[in-house]
Specification:
single chain, about 170 residues, alpha/beta, TIM Barrel, five-stranded mixed beta sheet, 5 helices, 5 strands
């Protein structure tokens, strides 16, 4: 199913509560569905990458869901994990990391760009979850600013963001 492949989250707003005007349904009484591209669209493209967010935008999602960490030099980067994840991270020689890599908090942004996050490590349980993900070479960890620029360039003024921070220093 396409929604599963995308890692899409369907978010229904809470039922109207007369005590809180901010969560009441629209005047028409209709409920809305927020179609979110989870980590962009990790079932189809490398997660939390510009490729994934561009793909999700092309499919018409309402919201981009993503996670952020902060590098040693203060750059906000997009990553689900506060550490480099060995299931999706290859070193400069192209080998998957054997264990969790260093935290983003211990790396500069330039250092993060040495790693490739365009593929899931074959043979892992994680790879089994997303058999339709299109692996790519040369995919780098984006800055949050890069995602905002991508959305602006797309001309999609209605897109929303669901951003979770992963900023606890490790």
């Amino acid at each position: 199913m396409l929604l599963t492949a995308l890692g899409i989250l369907l978010v229904l707003p809470p039922a109207p509560n007369p005590g809180f005007a901010a969560v009441q349904a629209p005047a028409s009484g209709a409920r809305t569905i927020d179609l979110q591209g989870h980590r962009g669209g990790r079932g189809l493209w490398p997660e939390n990458t510009l490729v994934s967010f561009a793909g999700a935008l092309s499919l018409g999602v309402d919201t981009l869901e993503l996670d952020c960490a902060v590098t040693k030099d203060g750059v906000v980067v997009v990553s689900h994990d506060p550490l480099l994840n060995p299931e999706i991270t290859r070193d400069p020689s192209g080998r998957f990391l054997d264990t969790h890599g260093p935290s983003f908090f211990s790396l500069t942004f330039a250092e993060t760009q040495k790693y490739d996050v365009g593929r899931i490590k074959p043979g892992t349980a994680y790879a089994g979850l997303y058999p339709d993900q299109k692996g790519m070479d040369g995919v780098r960890i984006p800055r949050l600013a890069d995602v905002f620029a991508l959305v602006k360039k797309s001309g999609n003024a209605r897109i929303r963001f669901n951003i979770e921070t992963k900023i606890t220093p490790q």
